[in-house]
Amino acid sequence: MLEMMTDSSLQNINKFLEITGILKRIQRSGWVEVGVNQPESVADHSFRTAVLCMLYADIEDLDPLKLLRMALIHDLPEALIGDLMPSQKTLQTKEEEKKAIHKMLGFLPKPLMEKYLEVWNEYEEGKTREAKAVRQLEKIEMALQAKEYENSGSEKSLERFIKSAKESTVWPELKKLLSCILEES
């Protein structure tokens, strides 16, 4: 299909990829706020969340492609609006996120745009089993990162991140995984 695309369509895909690349340079705001030295980027977080989703989907016999798409798409708007902590999210910022994802996905061929927008909306609504799984797994990834920062000698208090993960993780098998991560890391 790529070979049949016009130069204009390919340039739009390139623009989409350039925008997503911004996520590699956006530091996660929670880590910045508490003063973590050289904090991970949004892309770093999305990558390991995707790996967690892949493992979980295969272990629990869920649709791995759907979970991977959600994990990779869930933070895309942050390339345009920045990384917002939950305390910073308002109706206005949710609207900005929605505009940003539409703008970004608008560079893609319409069938892809529609498919990815559907996945992003499903994640945002948080009602399906897959969306609930990804939401919990991305919090588990955050707790894992917090433990890694603590283990590397960070003197910053990262307990609020671990507490948030504990509060957000509700499925028994994921609670067990989180507990193991918090004990081992």
Helix-strand layout with pairing:
Elements (H helix, E strand, L loop, with lengths): L6 H15 L7 H6 L7 H19 L3 H10 L4 H4 L9 H15 L4 H16 L3 H23 L7 H10 L3 H13 L1
Helix pairs in contact: 3-4, 3-8, 4-7, 4-8, 7-8, 8-9, 8-10
| Mean pLDDT across every amino acid position | 94
Q: List the total number of helices.
A: 10
> Helix content range of the residues, please?
over 70%
Q: Give the overall form.
A: globular
Termini separation comes to: 45 Å
Specify the structural class: mainly alpha
Total count of strands: 0
Radius of gyration using CA atoms only: 17 Å
The SSE string, one letter per element, is HHHHHHHHHH
Q: How would a textbook summarize the main sheet?
A: none
Describe the protein's architecture and organization.
The chain is mostly helical and 185 residues long. 71% of the residues lie in helices and 0% in strands. Helix 3 runs antiparallel to helix 4, helix 7 packs across helix 8 and helix 8 packs antiparallel against helix 9. It starts with 6 loop residues before the first helix and ends with a helix. The mean pLDDT is 94.
Structure, briefly:
By secondary structure, the chain is an all-alpha fold. It is built from ten helices and no strands.
Main features:
mainly alpha
